[in-house]
Amino acid sequence: MGKLNDLAGAGQAVWLDFVDRKFLEAGGLQKLVDEDGVTGVTSNPTIFQKAMGEGTAYDQTLGAFDKANPGASAMDRYEHLAIQDIKAAAETLRPVYDRLNGKDGYVSLEVSPYLANDTDGTIAEAQKLWAAVDRPNLMIKIPGTPAGVPAIAATIANGINVNVTLLFSQESYQAVALAYVEGLELRVSRGEPIDRIASVASFFISRIDAEIDKKIDALIEKGGATAEEAKALKGKVAIANAKLAYAWYQDFIASDRWQALAAKGAQPQRLLWASTGTKNPDYPDTLYVDTLIGPDTVNTMPPKTLDAYRERGTARVTLTEDLDGARKVLADADRLGLDLPGVTERLVEEGVASFSKSFDDLLGSIEAKHPADA
């Protein structure tokens, strides 16, 4: 039992933010499950673009699909490949799902990023992907955009597990947490079970500091009285933001509204820390793991962060430490004009655009591949 396994003792699940055909076929995920206690997998268009768009690992499967489905669109070809990977990951994680009685063991598949501002399209695609994968330990990823919020409620009401992605602000997180509850309440009103429905709210971390730190560096360069104050905030704003989101979660699950659902077997929507690889080389590479450990949370880590934590992580509950300090960090950031609300709003837009660009590249790569003709 290593340091990654120790996180479970602090109430935090470890997921892998990576999926790749060669990795799955070589037993890489199974090894992480067996040795490090990994209990879930996340994917996104950027991960699939790197996996499918480079090399020949998918060519045999794609060639067979093309022969059976001549003239298939790039989207259909992509979905065929992605669904196979997601099914394979789900099968690897199924014993975890069964052992934990549906509390964990999930793999996530994202709706098309082109639908980020299309509520009805998102609902329809979630249903289509859920039926295509046909595994109870699947989560459909839906962005926490204004259009995504009602889609989340509807998808939960349809009995589909949801991973809400691209959350940066506390307000956006609260909106999707309430959407999850609304979906569960609708099922209860119809006499439908809610005890096997799961959701996570993916709250992004390092991207916030990357943007805020640019603003801090500009203040430092200007010099003057605020330079030292600004410098003291480097690498702290994203963590403070996450801690206060979790504080809201703790208050909410103690509320009468949530307790009424819990009495019927509802699982809490866990906060999932995403974008936890550090982007600033001056920061410890385990910074966004060590500082965000707490019960009923998930940390999805890219392979490099997973390796770093295995070597030198420290598992103790840190998420609830010094909340007054976290409030002061955000108050100071506001006073110094770092504009966290503006940064988080822009990051959502940039995240959707980035995933759409990755999807463009992915579909272009698949369009260019014709292994059946080789």
**How are helices and strands ordered from N to C?**
HEHHEHHHEHEHEHEHHHHEHEHHH
Q: What name goes with the CATH superfamily? A: Aldolase class I
Number of strands: 8
- In the CATH hierarchy, the architecture is Alpha-Beta Barrel
The number of domains: 1
Q: Regarding quaternary structure, how should these chains be classified?
A: single chain
Tell me the distance between the termini.
Answer: 47 Å
Q: Please identify the structural class as seen in this structure.
A: alpha/beta
What does the main sheet amount to? 8 strands, parallel, barrel
Mean pLDDT across the residues is 95
Strand content: 5-15%
Poorly predicted regions are none
Strand order of the largest sheet: 1-2-3-4-5-6-7-8
What would CATH call the class? Alpha Beta
- The whole-angstrom Rg is 21 Å
Number of helices: 17
What percentage of residues falls in helices of 4 or more residues? 55-70%
**CATH fold-level label:** TIM Barrel
- Overall 3D geometry? globular
GO molecular function, one term: transaldolase activity
Function: Transaldolase is important for the balance of metabolites in the pentose-phosphate pathway.
Pathway: Carbohydrate degradation; pentose phosphate pathway; D-glyceraldehyde 3-phosphate and beta-D-fructose 6-phosphate from D-ribose 5-phosphate and D-xylulose 5-phosphate (non-oxidative stage): step 2/3
InterPro entries: Aldolase_TIM, TAL/FSA, Transaldolase_2, Transaldolase_AS
